[in-house]
Write a structure and sequence with these properties.
Elements: H1 3-50, E1 64-65, E2 68-72, H2 78-82, E3 89-94, E4 97-107, H3 114-120, E5 133-135, E6 144-151, E7 154-155, E8 162-167, E9 172-178, E10 181-186, E11 191-192, H4 196-205, E12 213-228, E13 234-246, E14 252-258, E15 272-273
Parallel strand pairs: 12-15
Antiparallel strand pairs: 1-11, 2-10, 2-13, 3-4, 4-9, 5-6, 6-7, 6-8, 8-9, 12-13, 13-14
Helix pairs in contact: 1-4
Length: about 280
Amino acid sequence: MNFKRIQWIFFFAFLLFDVIIAGSLLVENRFIIANNIGDNSEVIMKEMRNDSITFNKLSSRVHTGFYISGKRSASDGQLDSATSRLRNQDQHFNGYTLSSEFDRSIRVDPQAPEERLNQLIKNSHQVAFGSHYRYNPALSKGQTVVYSQVIEGRPLMNGDGQIKFHMNNSGEVTGYNQTYLEDATVLRPDTPLISQKKAVTWLYKHNQIPNNSRIRWCQLGYSRLMTTNTDNKNVYIPTWTVQMKTKNSGEVEQIAINAFNSTILKNNQQTSINTDSLNR
């Protein structure tokens, strides 16, 4: 065997060895980084518990969502037109809200009102577009039972698409207020969203969750972001809505975080835009 051939054999042997070592280090570094990311969230949640913040198990699942546009149904819109089919109730429009009183109250179980109301909303002579709504126990409270309009599989979390049933002290539903989002349209392809765990820990890191409080729920839905300058439509984005209750005072606070980029939504802040930029 000549000397040059031996040199090439050693060269390729050392090259193969370097590749194997480099690959091992790369895998190890990725493992360390992944572990650090996981450990970081665990550290934050431990800090939350040390600050007497209690919460249920938080999910790390990554969902996807859309930009959506839609128009709040007014007195001359789709919801108003559908009221012509309603029976045994007295209804009228005020702005974007349909208010209705039943001729006869409907008895429900105060502990599980949805068992009866799930049947009621399927009847188009009782509730218009009822099949577009779903019971939302997180938003329901006291004598108000809330059903949220579902867009692309998720509930609207503000008042633009809700049915609020009114229940009296005898466990009877006397009527409801309803809003409806019509012509809902997806503006962009689905995009990965932050997880429930990321949303809550982000709020904590930015001092939005007070000490000695309990996170009652954290729900993924759609919230109004802005009003467009085209046909008076609104733009809606996926949001994680978090409700917190202070243990000492009992004060309840609700806050929403943009599930695309983790920014905190400011109440009643609207921006006028052109939807053409979102359709691309």
